[in-house]
Amino acid sequence: MALRLAAVAVLATLTMAVKYTVGRGVAFPEVLFWRQFLTVPILLAWLAWRRETARLRTKRLPSHFRRAMMGAVGMGFTFGAPVLLPLAESTTLGFTTPIFAVIFSALLLKEKVGPWRWTAVAVGFAGVLVIARPDGHLPLFGSLVGLGAGLMVALISIQVRDLTRTDEPLSIVFWFAALSAPVLALSLPFVAKSHTAEQWALLGAIGVLGCVGQLFLTASLRYGQVASVIVMDYSALAWASFYGWAIWGDVPAASTWFGAPLILAAGLLIVWRERVLGKTPVATAGTLPAEQG
To answer: What pLDDT score does 135 carry?
Structure first.
């Protein structure tokens, strides 16, 4: 659980850094590129130092490529939401992943979903309606991007769950970065420009934070039970609220304090119910190697 708390803190700082970097004039697609590209040499160097590069071998490159393309889209939603919305609200909307995962389990995997989890779905979406109330508090487009982040991570969780049958999480993280970075690089001729020393430092920090956060995530699942450690993911809301207030002066609206507990309660109910049923709990906002995405 300590490793998971550390992972959430690092990834919350990463999200803040992305929002801050875009605000300092770096194009959003370029930020995504450096987030992915820097992961590749960092992981290669770390594995080479440990003489464990064989851990990256895979016979499923086509599956990794499909996951990388969907993950790149999911990452765009995941980091796009905090760029468009206050950090606390975007983080809270990202917690809808377990809710979407239940829906996709029923629709795509044909799993039987009982009244407990359907109740959680209803409670969770009630929380979304409370937060994104139609009175101008949040921009509609930003709210949809935030919900899209939760939806994409839920979809990707199905792919990742399939990949983990044959490949270890570290390999999935590496191939996601290695295969998505060249695609993201296609945008650079249109958006890249010269940067100040501060902007380069921010881009470097984003790459390092993303990689370190993923290593902490992987370690937390190695040493702890999934149902126990993923509950720690909700601590991201505290970090988001703090960063939003300290850097941008954002104080979550009253509707957020009413809606967030509903979404968090829905996620916890789903995790508890799946633990009772003996299933691997669905991914929460920070469970996947895409970060979310």
So the answer is: 61
Structure tokens at 154: 């839920």
Cβ(223)–Cβ(3) below 8 Å: yes
Q: Note whether 190 and 181 are within 8 A (CB).
A: no
Query: In whole angstroms, what is the distance from residue 27 CA to residue 5 CA?
Result: 30
Q: What is the DSSP letter of 251?
A: -
Query: What is the reported pLDDT for 223?
Result: 66
DSSP single-letter state for residue 166: T
pLDDT at 10: 93
Nearest to 263 by CA among 146, 148, 131: 131
Residue 292's pLDDT is what?
45
Which residues have a Cβ under 8 Å from the Cβ of 122 and sit 6 or more positions away?
Answer: none
Distances (CA, A) of 93 to 9, 24, 39, 127, 161: 18, 25, 26, 9, 23
DSSP 93-154: HHTTHHHHHHHHHHHTS-----HHHHHHHHHHHHHHHHHT-TTTTS-HHHHHHHHHHHHHHH
The alpha carbon torsion through 258, 261, 262, 266 (nearest 10 deg) reads 170
Q: Which residues does 286 contact at the CB level (< 8 Å), separation at least 6?
A: 7, 8, 11, 217, 230, 233, 236, 292
Q: From CA 266, how far away is CA 125, in angstroms rounded?
A: 9
**Residues of the chain scoring pLDDT < 50:** 284-293
- Please say whether the beta carbons of 293 and 71 come within 8 A: yes
Specify burial of residue 109 (Cβ count, 10 A radius: 0-12, 13-18, 19+). Answer: exposed
| Residue the block writes with tokens 């409370």 | 130
Q: Which two tokens stand for residue 287?
A: 């469970």
Q: How far apart are the first and last CA of the chain?
A: 22
Would you state the pLDDT for residue 34?
94
